[in-house]
Amino acid sequence: MDWDEVELNPRIISALNQANIKSAETVLTLSVPELLKLTRLSVDDVRCLQTAVAGTIRKNAMVTALELRDEKSRFPSQHQKLSFGCGVLDRLTRGGIPLVGITELAGESSAGKTQIALQLCLTAQYPVQYGGLGAGAVYICTEDAFPSKRLQQLITSQQKLRSHVPSDVIKTIRFGDGIFVEHAADVDMLTDCITKKVPILLLRGAVRFIVIDSIAALFRCEFGAGDAVLKAKHLQTLGAKLHALSSRFTAPVLCINQVTDTMTDSGHLGLRGKKAAPALGISWANQLLMRVTVTRTSQEAPQPHTGCVLRTLEVTFAPHLPRSSCYYTVDSDGVKGIDGQ
Q1: Burial of 136 per CB tally in 10 Å (0-12, 13-18, 19+)
Q2: pLDDT band at 91, cuts 50/70/90?
């Protein structure tokens, strides 16, 4: 920190330089006795120093929640979202996925997690005015092979699914070339991909959306029940790296997660039942900005979605959304929410 920018007596600035104190963080984290010992200033001078430094930081960095809400031109990333490519799902989530932070998509097998992720990868390539990011996506597979055939099917259905977007806009987007696929067989490969390969694509502007499918597969294989502490450390490190990339490049991160059965009290005659909960526990949940859970029902969807299985999408938690849910289906064209249900 340049002490000349702070309204301080030159005598105090000289004492700071002699004590080799160069940052505001040092001034605010040290106690008064520690500052007295280092700077050899009086108590009044130290109090004056702390007040001046705190005032400078507050003036330059403090932003209120009301300012974030109202001043959209100053804070565009707080208001722009990555669209799901479906009006119903966008209304449920107030526009889609936040641009900064980690969003988790959790659910059992065949609930539609990969289908939603693929649709988001295509939506990311649309211009901003149509809910996209104007850039591609990187898709990191940790389990199965990338579903390239399904992706091609979704690409050919874009005009039908996104009928409100002019056909000239859709024709100019080379969807297949905008998705970069990586495979990670273990945690080390995943970390290497995130720290070395993905930043290069982000720096070049080739991508602005990151998908990991799935986050739980690697950690379930490599860490046993007795490795809880080590697994938690790896999850925290991975989450920190993903947050750094998302914040630096304003790039949303979507992590697909599996679910695991947990025992719950049914409240009837002391019996216990099963309930599916996202895997990886609280250590991973603390890294998330938003969690969305999907489930597959045994019911058939109503008209005009006849022939499709009914599924539910629920916003489990998010700082800007209430807990809410809606039905959706997956057909040959893509993921479609059901309005008015």
Answers
A1: buried
A2: very high
CATH number of 69-338: 3.40.50.300
Instruction: Using the Cα atoms of residue 35, residue 38, residue 44 and residue 45 in order, give the sign of their dihedral.
Output: negative
> Is the N-terminal amide bond of 199 cis, ω within 30° of 0?
no
Among all chains, which residue has been given the structure tokens 């490519």? 85
Q: Report CA-CA distances (Å) from 218 to 215, 224, 291, 298.
A: 7, 11, 20, 30
Q: Tell me whether strands 81-82 and 102-107 are parallel, antiparallel or unpaired.
A: unpaired
* Digit-coded pLDDT (tens) for 307-323: 899 999 999 999 999 99
Measured distance CA(31)–CA(75) in Å, rounded: 35
Q: What is the pLDDT of residues 93-102, one digit of tens each?
A: 999 999 999 9
The answer to whether residues 84 and 98 touch, using CB atoms and an 8 Å cutoff, is no
CA distance 254 to 57: 33
The conformational region for residue 195 under phi > 0 = left, psi -120 to 50 = alpha, else beta, is alpha
How many alpha carbons lie under 13 Å from residue 169 in its C-beta half-sphere?
17
